[in-house]
Design a protein that fits this description.
The chain is of the alpha+beta class. Helix content is 26%, strand content 32%.
Length: 609
């Protein structure tokens, strides 16, 4: 094994809850190591998207290579800056698989929060060396001592191991760099073995094809090497290799232990998947011969499953194909995003898309608008149900109420449940319990992190928390609570299909799956929205929400009334009554044969978030 090249390499990432100062600390690391000239330095340098800078959050993981000298020895530090929001946990898991150490960053003004715990557990599962850091010690309301006690409680480390730092002033940054060099192990790998590099991210370049962001585990790769993607068995000639500084800088080669990029030249996004192993085609073919040592694919990542589904429709039907190409390119850059074509009687042809959460949905929508100039129509987010039919063992996945089989054939309906963890100051315990009592939650336990902050755990159907829950939680706790959730499985629930009738006719596109106990309130909301959205006709329109044959909510859209007696200028009252009776009969007849045209605005009023 050749360790001479690798012994001075340190691969690490920064993990934290959203808004705890990861990107700001990254800026100070870049300054301290003189990776970026001061004249080119700007805030949140590693947040490359305008969207990240505007929102102040990291959406995409971003690698960067730094050179750092300590005790006259030069070290190569490869940092991967990770997102903090629960919806981008998959980006964090991919970063962790490419490194040997993690800087755990905790805001001294807020303490340990829900996503801090989640990311820490991911890092411990990967067996990474953890360097605990208390950040923002320069702020007047910071409480480093209290935050340290919380870190010791969750990590079990000693107080002297925790570094105090400030990403804003640069205090403690040198101590962090020293700790990374001393504590994070150098990468293990063999330069003499056949190339094995794991793809942890990728993006599309018009001139160079698919750019694969890789961690080289064994061997080396350089320009003009013929490579094979092991999962797809696709061969390609390397156009260019290089590092991130943080912009892409060409280099002669990438060797075992390095983090960098490979310009594959591939023009199709399907051949280069995140989690795949890149190997040298020549050596790979040799390894297939009898008696030769086989080239084994790297473990990769567990496949991520979307938890929230919503449909995206182009506002103009002519742009359908362009939208599909745009979604293809987004998927290459975001492996957790999935989509497939679908059609809706009201909105035409579109795509059913899977997301990791509502922020993920918002970001995809924003990126479509900014990067591809599309403004899609988005339907109400929903979840995937599992329906088991009588006499069948296998469950059938249901993405929308339109796919729901006849209720008489259904044996059981299951919906996804999640474990929800909320970290909050203890004075808000009552408010949170009141909020959760209004939902279909199951209380698990309460754990005290210290005298003032608690961790409360629940199990709850995913559909109850994907739309408004985050806002409701912030309102109930004056913005102090943080939340994290993870999928725990499907469970049987008492669910029904709620249908909408307009003038006695079922409108399939407006049907939805709801808990039986909420059917009346859901039905009332929908019929009220439709009453306001559908234009009045010359006859009364009954808007009904029904379950099976039972009406659970109803509104009536009043008809226009033509003044049929305006031409009368006198005479007996019976002449007036005769004309009014004739009008009444006409309206009744129109109501029985008239068809209601539902404008797309009415569908959107119900379907749109």
């Amino acid at each position: 094994m050749n360790n001479d090249y690798q012994k001075n390499i340190r691969n690490f990432c920064i993990i934290a809850h959203i808004d705890h100062g990861k990107s700001t600390l990254s800026d100070r690391l870049l300054e301290q190591t003189k990776t970026v000239e001061m004249r080119k330095m700007k805030e949140q340098l590693l947040d490359q998207m305008d969207l990240e800078r505007e929102r102040g959050i990291t959406i995409k993981l971003q690698p960067v290579r730094m050179n750092y000298t300590q005790d006259a020895v030069e070290y190569t530090l490869n940092l991967i800056d990770t997102p903090g929001h629960v919806d981008f946990g998959y980006e964090v898991s991919r970063s962790l698989a490419a490194v040997e150490g993690a800087v755990l960053l905790v805001d001294a003004t807020k303490g340990v929060q829900a996503q801090t715990l989640s990311n820490l557990y991911l890092a411990i599962e990967q067996g990474l060396e953890i360097i605990p850091v208390v950040n923002k010690i320069d702020l007047p309301n910071s409480n480093p001592e209290k935050t340290k006690k919380e870190i010791i409680h969750i990590l079990g480390c000693k107080e002297e191991e925790i570094i105090e730092a400030s990403g804003k002033t640069g205090a403690g940054v040198d101590k962090i760099l020293r700790a990374i060099v001393e504590k994070v192990p150098s990468p293990k790998g063999d330069i003499t073995k056949p190339l094995r590099a794991m793809i942890f991210d990728s993006k599309y370049d018009t001139y160079k094809g698919v750019l694969a962001f890789v961690r080289v585990v064994d061997g080396e790769v350089r320009r003009d090497t013929l490579i094979t993607m092991m999962a797809t068995a696709k061969d390609s000639m390397v156009i260019e290799v290089g590092h991130f500084k943080p912009n892409m800088v060409t280099s002669a080669m990438l060797r075992a232990g390095d983090i960098g990029y490979i310009a594959t030249g591939l023009k199709s996004v399907d051949f280069c998947r995140v989690g795949d192993t890149v190997t040298d085609s020549r050596m790979y073919e040799k390894s297939k011969k009898p008696g030769a040592e086989k080239v084994q694919a790297l473990p990769g990542y567990k496949e991520v499953r979307p938890v929230v589904y919503a449909s995206l429709y182009p506002t103009d039907g002519d742009t359908y194909n362009l939208m599909r190409d745009s979604l293809d390119k987004l998927k290459l850059n975001d492996a957790s995003f999935v989509f497939e074509p679908e059609s809706n009687p009201a909105l035409g042809k579109g795509f059913r898309c899977g997301f990791l959460g509502l922020l993920h949905l918002e970001i995809i929508k924003e990126r479509l608008e900014r990067e591809f100039n599309f403004t899609p129509t988005i339907t109400t987010p929903g979840v995937v149900y599992e329906v088991r039919l009588r006499g069948r063992q296998e469950a059938q996945k249901i993405y929308s109420a339109m796919d729901m089989p006849d209720p008489t054939l259904i044996d059981d309906i299951a919906e996804p449940y999640v474990k929800l963890e909320i970290i909050t100051p203890s004075q808000y315990l009552g408010s949170i319990m009141e909020l959760m009592n209004n939902l279909r939650s199951i209380y698990l336990n309460t754990e005290y992190l210290d005298m003032e902050r608690i961790l409360i755990s629940f199990e709850i159907p995913l559909t109850d928390i994907i739309v408004n829950f985050h806002d409701d939680l912030k309102s109930a706790t004056s913005g102090y609570a943080s939340m994290n959730y993870e999928f725990v499985g499907y469970r049987s629930s008492d669910l029904v299909k709620l249908d909408i009738l307009l003038a006695g006719e079922k409108v399939e596109a407006l049907s939805r799956i709801v808990p039986k106990e909420k059917a009346h309130s859901e039905g009332a909301v929908i019929v009220t929205k439709l009453k306001d959205a559908i234009p009045r006709q010359n006859f009364a329109i009954a808007v009904q929400a029904v379950i099976g044959g039972k009406v659970v909510a109803r509104e009536t859209i009043k008809p226009y009334r033509k003044d049929v007696i305006s031409g009368l200028y006198g005479g007996d009252v019976t002449r007036k009554n005769k004309l009014l009776d004739k009008q009444k009969k006409g309206k009744k007849k129109m109501g029985s044969i008239g068809k209601v045209n539902v404008p797309s605005e009415a569908y959107l009023a119900v379907l749109k978030r």
